[in-house]
Amino acid sequence: YRQLHTEEAQLSKFNQTEIKAMLGSYTKVLFVRDPFHRLIATFLQGMGISPSFSSFVQEVLDGGMHHGSVAWKPLVSLCRPCLIQYDYVVMFGFLRQELGHLLRRAGLPAGSLLPELTDSQVQWTYRWLSEQMFSELSAQQKKQLSHFYRWDLAAFPFSSSFLSE
């Protein structure tokens, strides 16, 4: 939808008719990741100034939805999957399989464009990290995190997430 497209345009800057026309002219892909894994990655990348994972989680919970970083805000609040009809939802942990399918559907040569992804190693590593980090949290923090990400957990199949247990 070239007439309205600019590099830094946000959907909220357009009216409903323009938004519908724009979204209808694109293939919409949403990449989703377990919210607890997103928290771990953010903490490990040093985006929080907390000395421990538990104190980092408390900062996230204290900041809430309106004062948080896009690195840990619930996906539902960022991507609006109830309002935008995505053509594809790609789950982190299944990237190699799903990206190959997506590229083939787009008519692109999947094999030559994909980096070597080792999904099983990534899944094992995050499972181990999740166990370690989750054990640092208090029962109250676990409950609050599950509540904070309740809409993500309801919208996407994160069945093995520690937050859905």
UniProtKB/TrEMBL annotation:
Main location: Golgi
Similarity field: Belongs to the sulfotransferase 2 family.
Enzyme nomenclature, EC number: 2.8.2.-
Any Gene Ontology CC annotation: Golgi membrane
Lineage: Eukaryota, Metazoa, Chordata, Craniata, Vertebrata
Stretches of the chain forming a coiled coil according to its record: none
Highest taxon in the source lineage: Eukaryota
Keyword Ribonucleoprotein: no
Protein name stated in the entry: Carbohydrate sulfotransferase
Membrane disposition: Single-pass type II membrane protein
Record key words, sorted: Carbohydrate metabolism, Glycoprotein, Golgi apparatus, Membrane, Signal-anchor, Transferase, Transmembrane, Transmembrane helix
Organism annotation: Machaerirhynchus nigripectus
EC class: transferase
Cell compartments where the protein resides: Golgi apparatus membrane
UniProt keyword Transmembrane, yes or no: yes
GO molecular function list: sulfotransferase activity
Biological process according to GO: carbohydrate biosynthetic process; dermatan sulfate proteoglycan metabolic process
